[in-house]
């Protein structure tokens, strides 16, 4: 296996559906302009409460990708 150099990018995805959808939204958007995305780490999860119910999720994550 050859040596690789990685770069990390911090993103925040949002969703009214749930945490996984917020992560998927952020990764899908990043995939539109970045190549070689390899991994992600969730660094923070937040939510908005309206009338006693979860109305919106925000998830901050770091994605890692290989530099060419």
What does this structure look like?
Helix content is 19%, strand content 56%. It has one helix and three strands, in the order βαββ. It has a three-stranded antiparallel β-sheet with strand order 1-3-2, covered by helices on one side. The chain is elongated. The two termini are 15 Å apart. The relative contact order is 0.35.
Write down the Rg: 14 Å
H and E order: EHEE
- pLDDT under 50 segments (min length 5)? none
User: Strand-residue fraction?
Assistant: over 45%
Q: How do the strands of the widest beta sheet line up side by side?
A: 1-3-2
The helix fraction, in percent, is 10-25%
Number of helices: 1
Concise account of the structure shown:
19% of the residues lie in helices and 56% in strands. By secondary structure, it is α+β, with helices and mostly antiparallel strands. It has a three-stranded antiparallel sheet with strand order 1-3-2, covered by helices on one side.
């Amino acid at each position: 296996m050859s040596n690789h150099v990685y770069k990390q990018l911090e993103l925040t995805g949002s969703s009214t559906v749930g945490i996984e959808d917020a992560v998927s939204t952020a990764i899908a958007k990043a995939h539109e302009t970045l190549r070689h995305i390899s991994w992600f780490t969730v660094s923070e999860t937040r939510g908005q409460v309206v009338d006693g119910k979860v109305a919106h999720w925000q998830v901050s994550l770091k994605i890692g990708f290989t530099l060419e």
